[in-house]
Amino acid sequence: MWKEESVNPTKIIHGNFTLPDSLFVTSNGDIYIDDGEDNGQVQKWIAETSTFVTVMNVNSSCEGLFVDINNTLYCSMYNHHQVVKRSLNDAKMTSNRVAAGTGIEGSDSNQLNSPVGIFVDVNLDLYVTDGGNNRVQLFQSGESNGITVAGSTSLNPTVTLRFPTGIILDAEKYLFIVDYGNHRIVGSSLNGFRCLVGCYGKGSQSNQLNIPFSLSFDHSGSIFVTDQYNHRIQKFQYLEESCGKFRIIE
Questions:
Q1: Is 9's pLDDT higher than 60?
Q2: Which residues does residue 120 pair with via DSSP β-bridges, in sequence order?
Q3: Statement to judge: residues 173 and 138 lie in one domain
Q4: Choosing a second label site near 204 at 20 to 30 A (CA), which of 48, 132, 210, 233?
């Protein structure tokens, strides 16, 4: 764990998890960690006590994790083409419920193909990066059929995606997507999608990415990107005075 503007970790968390693929940090500092590949579980690191507890049983890794405003935990199961969820308010570890996908690979509106990133908004609508279908699906609360909101098959296509992975929805309902196969970050606006980061092709320069996977924002609107094949995390600072452009922080 790092404090802002520091390159030296202030805390290192050790646990008995194997090959974790994702994590999710809540506002109180608790961390949910995927431990599904070998151990079939999601673990929660409790910030107040620095202890671990199992909060979900799964039969595969969770490529994406999310906790919504109702304290429901979501797991995107890449190999099972499905997103599952369970309420963390239930004291007893109950069976997971299906949030999206049939469990069978496909491209119909109720199907997914290798889902990765997930985001749940305040209306409990679920956004899923449907990697194998090169699209982002919106599953409105209580609905099993998704709406394609990004990708060449959307109702108003303004961006072509190549295996999207990470996703975030901001307070203004704008989407930010990690376009993994195109080595860039794209964002929506009133005029459709535009490239924000990595707009000059794959590479290792400060304005380039090479197989980015996930992204996150800080309180000032800067973007942090896991730049996998460059073995680094890149920070891109938001410049409000430059019409929403970003600049690289080395």
A1: yes
A2: 126
A3: no
A4: 132
